[in-house]
Design goal:
Two copies of one chain form a homodimer. Chain A has about 350 residues and is α/β, with parallel strands linked by helices. In chain A, about 45% of the residues lie in helices and about 15% in strands. In chain A, the strands form two sheets. A six-stranded mixed sheet of chain A has the order 7-6-8-5-9-11, covered by helices on one side. In chain A, strands 2-1-3-10-4 form a five-stranded mixed sheet, sandwiched between helices. Chains A and B meet through strand 1, helix 1, helix 3, helix 9 and helix 11 of A and strand 1, helix 1, helix 3, helix 9 and helix 11 of B.
Chain lengths: ~350, ~350
């Protein structure tokens, strides 16, 4: 071991802009990306600086991927299922209904062949993808009235998008697209019947408990939604290899930190919500079974007509089935026992 | 953005040795540490080189922490519960019976106050601790005969150590300490009745299915055992800050990769084991309940007499209880539904 002299870092000064799809109020998501940019700077002796911009500061939140592809910004932090409308295949890098849990998604991407499949797909869109966070299983949203049967879903105006909206439509739900800022008033007036967001920690800030107190779980359309960093592939290729390594290594820290922060913050937020009137429910078996059937049909139909989707879906499906079988042996019995023991 | 010139890395050349507690045959654990050392080298332009040594190459596997403390090596990769005999407080950095799952442990360390509590404890032992992997809930081991009731445990010679051994003793088990290489022969001859190791992927290599086919789950003494890197604190303080950052960032990658690799590899290994005669069982509710009671008693007793243990145990216990309550709302119902849907 040698004593360390003052480090004279020899890398080039590089300045990038990161567009986030999220507002600063989503501090768990936004903050984990700050941890990423801070770490990249530290790793490069302050030479590689990535400035982060919230949704709307450079581009609207739902156009982050487009901005990275166009080179407006070099890197973006977003959720791939926002781009479901371009091609449902994008959703595999985030979540599809009844998809992988947080841990399973990470296993699939890092060690189950997922990264290779996704890199190949995103390369065709001019992007390099990196895992950068997960929320864990989300909540199923806030409902003005109890929903017990599939019949109760008929005509329900639910603020929900993408794959989940398509699945819900088959059960008679009328998916609604309204801006986030209008959700509270729409629920209060009854213009919509339900809305879903994330989980207790983020949901609490919206105050929906006052206007739609029935709080359902689980959000089966987001068993383990992953957030990602997308880098413009031409900018990526210009980087020295140490800077590529800095982005890769720091993305793992961001990935760990976001899930950890959600896990650490959700329990107290849920307790406060319940104290403030939230009525906690689990979706009935009838609703879960019907949702699973329709979601599976939609995935299979998409696989039938979309070669890019099919190429990922088939190995993904095998991975998911194997994971759930293995989870049934040790992990789930352990978690279920810990839950029941904790109730005593 | 600037085009990147050839990088002239300005950091000092530093060479460290990493002692692993594990043999190369545990390729999931050993390999994730290789990913750590490789990433550190990449991040520092090849200037900070950490050479890894398997158990026994420099020091025996169970003396890795001592070797780091003594400065024989600068860094070690080990499981803190191996040092349970010095002080049971060490175990919180790995696993205690009915402790945190993999995701909960990560949340506790990174965002739940765990890192601060553990850093304070390890600092007193001359070490800096970093999370560096997890196996997920382990299996409960291989048994020559079925074990249905607490009465069946009486007199059972079980190769198991530490906290788990102490808990088992209260139910009449006789914990055995025999070298890993002798386990197969001891089970074959009936010198011991049962042995536990890790999970399907690692267990398969030992071939115990042939001599003790009853394969139990869950390993309640290891709900989510964490592996850690320990750095000699004096060596740590000599590092330039970019090299400290490299160790920290690379440790997150190692942490993600190990759990992901276990998750990805266990399902196929379990299928092969079952094909080769493994009889899968879940510990009975009677055994789980009794084990939980004894484990809780032992933790409380230790907290009563050991201030270092108590200082971590009290906030840890609150964190665990909150986590399990939250898990019962969304994550566990989702996982349980996915398991049941996959069986159809």
């Amino acid at each position: 071991t040698v004593a360390a002299p003052v480090l004279a870092q020899g890398g080039p000064a590089i300045s990038w802009r990161l567009a986030s799809s999220f507002p600063k109020t989503l501090d768990t998501i936004y903050g984990s990306a700050e941890r990423f940019t801070r770490r990249v700077a530290e790793l490069t002796g302050g030479k590689f600086v990535i400035r982060q911009f919230a949704a709307g500061e450079i581009v609207p939140g739902l156009q982050v991927m487009d901005a990275v592809q166009a080179g407006t910004v070099e890197i973006g932090h977003t959720a791939s299922y926002y781009y479901f409308g371009k091609d449902p295949t994008f959703a595999f890098d985030c979540a599809v209904p009844f998809g992988l849990t947080s841990r399973q998604q990470t296993a699939w991407v890092d060690q189950g062949g997922g990264r290779e499949l996704l890199r190949d797909f995103f390369k065709g869109h001019g992007l390099i993808n990196l895992m950068a966070g997960n929320t864990g299983t989300q909540m199923g949203g806030w409902f003005r009235k109890e929903i017990k049967t599939v019949a109760d879903l008929k005509g329900l105006k639910f603020r929900i998008a993408g794959f989940a909206g398509r699945t819900m439509e088959r059960m008679g739900v009328v998916p609604q697209q309204i801006p986030g800022g209008d959700v509270y008033a729409a629920l209060e007036k009854g213009t919509i019947d339900a809305a879903e967001w994330v989980g207790p920690y983020d949901d609490e800030k919206l105050g929906l408990v006052k206007v739609a107190p029935h709080y359902y779980a689980p959000g089966w359309w987001e068993a383990g939604p992953q957030l990602s960093l997308y880098v413009n592939i031409k900018e990526w290729e210009k980087l020295p290899k140490e800077y590529k390594a800095a982005i890769e290594a720091a993305s793992f820290e961001c990935h760990v930190a976001m899930q950890a922060e959600y896990d650490a913050r959700n329990p107290a937020a849920l307790a406060r919500l319940i104290k403030n009137g939230a009525k906690l429910h689990t979706f009935s078996k009838e609703i879960m079974d019907a949702s699973f059937k329709h979601a599976t049909d939609i995935m299979e139909e998409e696989a039938g007509r979309n070669a890019a989707f099919r190429k990922i879906y088939e190995p993904w499906k095998r991975f998911r089935n194997d994971q759930n079988q293995w989870a049934s042996v040790a992990e789930a019995p352990m978690q279920n026992f810990l839950i029941s023991a904790g109730r005593k």
